[in-house]
Amino acid sequence: MMPSPPTPPAAAAPYVELRSAERVPDTHAWPAGPDDHHPSVEAVGRDAVPVVDVGDPGAARAVARAAEEWGAFLLVGHGVPARVTAGVEEQVARLFALPALEKARAGRRPGEASGYGYPPALHLPKRMWSEGYTFPAAAVRAEFRRVWPDGGDEYLRFCDVMEEHHREMRALGGRLLDVFFGALGLTADQIAAGETERKIRETLMATMHLNLYPRCPEPERAMGLAAHTDSGFFTFITQSPVPGLQLLRRGPDRWVTVPAPPGALVVVLGDLFQLLTNGRFRSALHRAVVNRERDRISVPYFLGPPADLAVAPLASAVPPGRKAAFRAVTWPEYMGVREKALRMDASALAMLQVEDEGEDGGVPPKN
Ligand SMILES: C=C1C[C@]23C[C@@]1(O)CC[C@H]2[C@@]12CCC[C@@](C)(C(=O)O1)[C@H]2[C@@H]3C(=O)O
Ligand SMILES: O=C(O)CCC(=O)C(=O)O
Ligand SMILES: [Fe+2]
């Protein structure tokens, strides 16, 4: 009798071989496709996605406007070498090009925070047209031994590139955080002296999630990554020069396709940042669509608090004489609230809101 092939862990096999599909199978066909309720529009005129040059003296003002109106912006002038970004894209493409059984060695099992597999916080009726891999940015070497158990050149090259990316993004994260504090109206002295601000900057935790969106024979029936808000503070998205990320703009609701100019990073604000800023800066509802011609890679770098740090609205963000609009919560607690909210079709941030008898003081929109 032939020996049976090794069985991949259950969570490791959510994908059909998307690259060779000639049609979108029923498992991946979204009933009304990505243009379900709202049209997709180009980022022009009043839908032009804000661009912020982080080195510009007016960066704090530009960030404040973008964070209030969009919850997202394109970041330029950040100084991350193009060589690093190109290396990341190359390595991610190589990782996803490995045979399915090799990727399955690193399959994320239920309850695990890292590994190859479906995005952990999205529970959807249909499958998405993408492959993903999540890991803590500080643990690249341990994590990727699962893919390359014997180490070797491929493994070492992958780790070197990811670690360099992590160093660059972590430093940029601290720098942008100070710009955000400036955007809230804090002076450089107040930022330097602020205990809470310092704690947040020093403890920022980074998680990386690698996305591959293979080209799709019927993009109008498929979804790359379903609409969601990120849960942490803010996310840097490195993307291939192939558009696919969309942001929801309200009134009338429409999906704005974010351009992908070479060298620009996308910054997306998360729910805990909305909470930290007492609702002044908002998280952005976003998703990724796919296309017929080209594979697309995106590498979100999620920054948020360590698991044991309770996040509450910053004193500097609460108007004088008003109460904080939200109760304090840790990131894992927030994930639990969001899970519950998703099941109830409610807003997790609204569930954390504290009653205030005064007039509107930072009430979050239901994303
Ligand atoms: C740090 C994280 C953010 C994330 C959950 C995670 O622990 C790791 C994966 C992230 C991701 C990527 C795809 C969309 C998303 C909603 C998901 O299901 O997994 C985000 C999560 C998030 O921002 O909450
Ligand atoms: O692919 C993209 O550009 C977006 C990815 C994203 O939103 C995510 O992984 O959370
Ligand atoms: Fe996201």
UniProtKB/TrEMBL annotation:
Residues 203-305 form the Fe2OG dioxygenase domain. Pfam families: 2OG-FeII_Oxy, DIOX_N. Its cofactor is L-ascorbate. It comes from the Eukaryota. InterPro entries: DIOX_N, IPNS-like_FE2OG_OXY, IPNS-like_sf, Iron_ascorbate_oxido_reductase, Oxoglu/Fe-dep_dioxygenase_dom. One of its GO terms (biological process) is gibberellin biosynthetic process. It catalyses: gibberellin A20 + 2-oxoglutarate + O2 = gibberellin A1 + succinate + CO2. Its EC number is 1.14.11.15. One of its GO terms (molecular function) is gibberellin 3-beta-dioxygenase activity. Keywords: Dioxygenase, Iron, Metal-binding, Oxidoreductase. Belongs to the iron/ascorbate-dependent oxidoreductase family. This is gibberellin 3beta-dioxygenase. It comes from Panicum miliaceum (Proso millet).
